[in-house]
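Section 5.1 Outputs to date
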Amino acid sequence: MSKAYNRIDRFSEDIDLSMNRKPTQTERKASKEHIVEIAKSLGMELTNPDQIKSRHDYNMYVFSYDSLFASKPMEIIVETSYYQTVYPVEKHEVGSFVGKFCKNNGISLPIPFEAATVIMNVQSLERKEMSDDEAIIKMVDANIQREEILPSERAFSFKMKMDAIKRQGARDDLTSGTEFQKSGIKVDSWSREVVGNEAGMTGRQVAKYIRLTELIPELLDNVDVKKITLTMGVDLSYLDVQVQKWVYEYFKENGFLKPVQVEALKNHSNLSNASQHMIITILNEALPKKSTAAKVSLSEKKLDKYFPPHYSAKDRENVIIQLLEQWSTQQAQE
């Protein structure tokens, strides 16, 4: 865009390719193949193939190429992004910077070079000004379309959008004629429902994600990697920061945190003045107690000494139970 409008007089650091709709998986795969093929035909090599995933809404291709003016290979970055905000476009000529420079300065290159000029659709400079809150909402809506999004990313995105909507107040394009209450809990409920409807969720689900923003970073990271469930994360978010830190230390030292332990903390009557020792005690006592009953096993070789060969396993079991009942009766009479 900057080159099309002659805003820069140098090489561009990278190439940005965007699509204003959500492409199919087939289109994503095809675009990846085309980008790599074109770069290869130009003598460039993709240096980060393992990081490129066609299912992702954003990818950064890093290509290396041999430079005429540097001893080491140079790099050029191609960034692709889908489902971007649509802006007005205009057709502009975009020419080669090298070709233009050489032509203007009467320089002949040592190798054949075609200073091709192409016509491209470029974003128009005339754009509708957006408020900060409108920009936040558009940014969140674009990012939330990604196929893979971490719980923490969704949580903070929902919170940003909900806060922006609350600040905007009643908006014709969002309320759709619904009466909007401008105070108290009804504001939160209304804004959660708006965010939820546009994300295909309920307001309650949105509220749960937003609660994750109250977690300390260490616990939130473990929600992202699925070592702590979303429900456990929501329950932990209601604990004081210091208590959360103690819970994380316990989790780190023991390597686990069970739902029953989080439930015990949630249901405890008062944790406002809790100590670390108290939190550890609650967590340990919530675990199921291990059985202390002794296990007795009799090998077939031992039993063969007392039973005829034709006795089946069921026959042996019946005899043993009868003898145990007789023994139990004798013990009770003594």
